Amino acid sequence: MFGEEYVNERLPRLDEVFRYSEEKWQENLSRLKNSEVKYLLIAEAPPWTNENEPIKYFYAIHENDIHFRRSTLLKAVWYAFESQKLKDINDKEKALNEIGENGFLLVDSLPFAMNFKIINRGGEDYISLVKSCLEYLYGKLNFPGIKWSENVKIALAFKKNAEALIEAIPAGIKLQNGSTLYISKKLIVANNANYPNSKMLKSVYGLS
C-alpha cells in the first residue's frame, strides 16, 4: 500500500511508536482495575508522529501537551459520558480516569502508526491488512486482567476501518468470557468528516 522504501524509512519510528503506545495502553488498564469493561471502542491505529514530535496517542499524557486541544477522539468519548467541558491538559488525566471508571476501553485494530489517510482504505490491500492483524486485535481483547461485562456495548470509530472489520469478522468478535459481539454499520460513530461523534457514541452505547 505504501511501498517498501516508504515503510523501510519509517520502521525505527514505527517501532518506537508501537512500543510507547503498547506501554500506555497497558498502563491504562489500571484505571479499569475496579471496573468491568462495559463500553468498547475499536479504532484504527495510533497516529503517525515524526521523530521531533511527542508521540500522540489516546492514552498518552505529555506535560504541556500542545496536542490536547486537538484530541478530537478523546473529547468525543468524554462528551458521550460527561457534559462538563475539558479546558487544559490537567483535565486529560481526569478524563481518562473517569471514562475508565465508567468502564470504557479503546482498542486499535492495527498496530502500525502509519498515515493511513494517504492510501485507499477501501481497497483490497487494506482489507487484507485488517484481516491479517486480527490476532493483534484479539490479543488486546483477551489481555490478562480485563474483566468484561456480560452486556458490553461496542462502537466502531472510523468508517473504512469499520467496514474492513465487518468483512473480516462476519461471525462476530469472540470475547474471553464466552460472549460474542456482533458488528455492523449501525455501530459506526464517525460523522461526515470521519471523526467520531459524541452524540453518535451516546446513541450506540445507550447513554441517556
Reconstruct the topology from this structure:
Elements: H1 4-28, E1 37-43, H2 72-81, H3 90-101, E2 104-108, H4 124-132, H5 134-141, E3 148-156, H6 159-168, E4 173-174, E5 180-181, H7 198-205
Helix pairs in contact: 2-3, 2-7, 4-6
Give a brief description:
The protein is an alpha/beta fold.
Structure notes:
With 208 residues, this protein is of the alpha/beta class. It has one domain. 39% of the residues lie in helices and 12% in strands. It is built from seven helices and five strands; from the N terminus they run αβααβααβαββα. The protein has helices at 4-28, 72-81, 90-101, 124-132, 134-141, 159-168, 198-205, and strands spanning 37-43, 104-108, 148-156, 173-174, 180-181. The strands form two sheets. A three-stranded parallel sheet has the order 2-1-3, with helices on both faces. A two-stranded antiparallel ribbon has the order 4-5. A hairpin with a 5-residue loop joins strand 4 and strand 5 (180-181). It is globular. The N and C termini lie far apart (42 Å). The model has no long low-confidence stretch (mean pLDDT 90).
Extract low-pLDDT stretches.
none
Strand order in space, largest sheet = 2-1-3
DSSP summary, beta strand count: 5
Q: Strand portion, in percent?
A: 5-15%
* SS element count, helices: 7
Through-space gap between termini: 42 Å
- Fraction of residues in helix: 25-40%
Shape category: globular
Sheet/helix structural class: alpha/beta
Q: How confident is the prediction overall: mean pLDDT? A: 90
Major sheet, described briefly? 3 strands, parallel
The tally of domains stands at 1
Radius of gyration: 16 Å
Q: What string, H for helix and E for strand, traces the elements in order?
A: HEHHEHHEHEEH
